[in-house]
Amino acid sequence: MLQLPSNLVARRLVPFALPSLPSAPLPSPREAHLWCVKPDELKDASLLQEYMKILSPCEKENVLSVKGEVLQKCALLSRVLVRTTLARCLWIEGLSSGCLFHARLDTDYRINPRSFKFKKNRFGKPEVEWQHNDVGFLPSLQFNVSHTSSLIACGITVNDPIGIDVEEKQRRPNANVLSLASRYFSPPEVQYLKSLVDSDSQKIEFIKLWTLKEAYVKALGRGFSGAPFRKFTIRFETRGDLVSEKLKTGEFRIAVEPVSDHETLTANWHFALAEITGSHFAAICMGIDENDTGKEHDLLKLKVWKTLPYMEDECLSDSEAVIKISGLS
Amino acid sequence: MASVAGTASAVSVRPPRRLLQVSNGISGLKSVSFTNQRKSSVSIRSAPRLRVSCAAKPETMEKVCFIVRKQLAIADDTPVTGESIFSQLGADSLDTVEIVMGLEEEFGISVEEESAQSISTVQHAADMIELLLEKKKAA
Questions:
Q1: Helix or strand or coil: residue A273?
Q2: Cβ of B96 under 8 Å from any chain A Cβ?
Q3: Do A182 and A190 meet the contact criterion of CB atoms below 8 Å apart?
Q4: What residues of chain B lie within 8 A of the CB of A147, using their CB?
Q5: In the predicted model, what is the mean pLDDT of residues B67-89?
Q6: Which of A95, A164, A242, A260: disulfide with A155, CB 3.0–4.6 Å?
């Protein structure tokens, strides 16, 4: 039985049916789309019940096994966010490919979020399990999810492997950050943190580095043993062509440098860091095939939405709610 | 069901379900890996002739649960047991490494980074600690 947070009001009299999901554009090359949910904004118990119906049986079981109302709600929203984010982009006009997707389309030819199947790669990274018929017809959407108790985010791209990590700006580790860094970060990163004069800057930069490192490991999709934190360095470096000009924020490029020439720690990964709704850092890492588009030093693009799936969508890009910190055009 | 109560005598720990494989390397170092049904694993290199005993002692389990509760600020009425999965308790990866650092301080042991970031259940953590404590005694 789904535990409902005690502060929610259940409306039982009128059957609640979800409206249709608005569509969203596909990410362009070198672009990531970030869809965010704030669990605190979900106050309707009947909506929670409807959300449960979107999940697969296995996902429902997982959600129900989470202990505690708040965590259970987050687990549920996390799955709903992935499914609805993917479904939004795959709106198909007309019947051109309809015969192949008949079972999965709602009446207005939108993909039903329930219809996605997921699998894990051999290291445990979740991926869409595209059905046999989809190959060649549907864009290859890549996704990654991250959550804190106050924000759940799903990043998507077309083709490019993606890893994201979100963290509360205010997060302060219980342990001393220099101890944590000495234990888990690479030596240059520890030096960088030590060079910061005040301890609050150290904590903030620690959190930023942590999210960037997490995003990288998740983008690689090989688990933590595939990319131990100590074995690579995240650096903020200036773009070569701007060295003589005054650098604005956003002009810094974030680069990853493997400590040893480990086969799995390749360096064609691009990073971006942004601040969302004044409350969270979001780090994004994308694996770009340089032969496809752009030059190596081109920045990434990011679009951000805040959503309560089926209820409300708000585009946050180009507003104060999204502050680009590094790596973004 | 493993549970932790106030006194050590009331604690019972069910031996974890897992496959234990030990293989000999030419160098004489033995690599021991534990896998459980959830497909997460902890691998630790140990000195030769290690006698492996993997079930964590009740006192170890109790200390681990205490440290986990503290780090994650878990409410008293929420149970924390050997089978508790960190992510289901609300721990993210930063919480996990902080927990591991707390365990290192508490038990005077040192955990490899790769292992630290891969620990997914309380049982994992307790068993790994037990193994490291044994290794320390044998050294």
A1: strand
A2: no
A3: yes
A4: 92
A5: 89
A6: A164
- Residues 249-308 in A contacting B (C-alpha not used; CB under 8 Å): none
**Helix intervals (H) in chain A:** 45-52, 57-64, 69-89, 98-101, 177-184, 187-194, 199-220
pTM of the model: 0.78
Q: Provide the token pair at A204.
A: 């903030």
Hey, is A323 helix, strand or coil? strand
Residues of B in contact with A71 (CB under 8 A): 88-90
CA–CA gap between residue A148 and residue B92 (Å, rounded): 8
Whether A229 has its CB under 8 Å from any CB of chain B: the answer is yes
What number is the ipTM of this complex?
0.76
Distance from CA of A291 to the nearest CA of B (A): 33
- The answer to whether residue B68 neighbours chain A at the CB level (below 8 Å) is no
Residue in B87, B119, B89 with CA at minimum distance from that of residue B104: B119
Active-site residue (options: B76, B77, B92, B127): B92
Contact A316/A304 with Cβ under 8 angstroms? yes
- For residue A104, give Cα distances in angstroms to A101, A224, A271, B106: 5, 35, 35, 54
d(CA A35, CA A154) in angstroms, rounded, equals: 5
Element housing A107 (H / E): none
Taking the C-alpha atoms of residue A41 and residue A4, their distance in angstroms, rounded to an integer, is 14
Q: Do B89 and A71 touch (CB under 8 A)?
A: yes
Q: Bridge-partner residues for A154, per DSSP? A: A35, A145
The answer to whether residues A228 and B117 touch, using CB atoms and an 8 Å cutoff, is yes
Return the sign of the alpha-carbon dihedral for residues A90, A91, A93, A96. Answer: positive
A178 in contact with B, Cβ within 8 Å: no
Q: Which of A174, A184, A230 sits opposite B71 (nearest CB)?
A: A174
What are B45's two structure tokens?
A: 């290199």
* Contact assignment for B98 to A174 by CB distance below 8 Å: yes
